[in-house]
């Protein structure tokens, strides 16, 4: 009887995920949770049959070319796979999977938090009370922008975009979207489709990004597109930092064109962009869209389900 496959888990995943991995695999686990260089990833690939990485491990074209032939599958603990050069990995005969569906609600929930927090001035208000400098109240004080009943533009109407739309319906928002293809009518639930992004931007009092980062979507929200938005629009990004031209957003915040922004993703991660910190109307979080207990367990289990299928000789459900 062959032994268990050897699996490298690159980061500290949820306890339940690690328990199951240790039960079913000969698991090497990074309990210290540090990051790995390209050389370390390449060296590990000679010792394992499978890797279960996060978006923090980069499988570039160069890394893919140098991976050991022992490595058969990369079962990502993420829905986004912009950290993987899929083409180069496929050429090496490596199976790649991701974890769709299970993080849609958690991510949409965080997008909503950012949208509300940006619109209702959460950063300023929290700081004021916390620093004991709240010494004044008036009806004209801390007036924000109402979310209820406004127009919401969604870029990317995949699973997370649809979860966002569902939550927005509870706020009586008028939903518009841009997507590579139009959804079947029953899945639109009244959302209005725009064939091009500029048409969507023109009606987006609130704009939420939910598309993957690809060479085609990099910098999709640039200076020109920001200018297309209605004045005083609010921007929300829980997808990937690369979607926004950060210098253009900073200029639009400075000029007052954009009312506020809620950002969970940045071009540089970890770290973010310190230039945003000077704006009280930018509500920021450190890439925690899917960081709930329930969702972390579900992501880990989904990645393990993909590995189990692969090693049982079946097609993994989330094979890319
Ligand atoms: C994760 C994400 O936090 O799934 C994604 O694409 O960006 C986040 O949900 C991260 O990738 C965990 O590995």
UniProtKB/TrEMBL annotation:
It comes from Sneathiella chungangensis. GO terms for cellular component: cytosol. CDD domains: GDH (cd05301). It comes from the Bacteria. Residues 113-289 form the D-isomer specific 2-hydroxyacid dehydrogenase NAD-binding domain. Belongs to the D-isomer specific 2-hydroxyacid dehydrogenase family. One of its GO terms (molecular function) is glyoxylate reductase (NADPH) activity. This is D-glycerate dehydrogenase. SUPFAM superfamilies: Formate/glycerate dehydrogenase catalytic domain-like (SSF52283), NAD(P)-binding Rossmann-fold domains (SSF51735). Keywords: NAD, Oxidoreductase. Residues 26-318 form the D-isomer specific 2-hydroxyacid dehydrogenase catalytic domain. InterPro entries: D-isomer_2-hydroxyacid_DH, D-isomer_2_OHA_DH_cat_dom, D-isomer_DH_CS, D-isomer_DH_CS1, D-isomer_DH_NAD-bd, NAD(P)-bd_dom_sf.
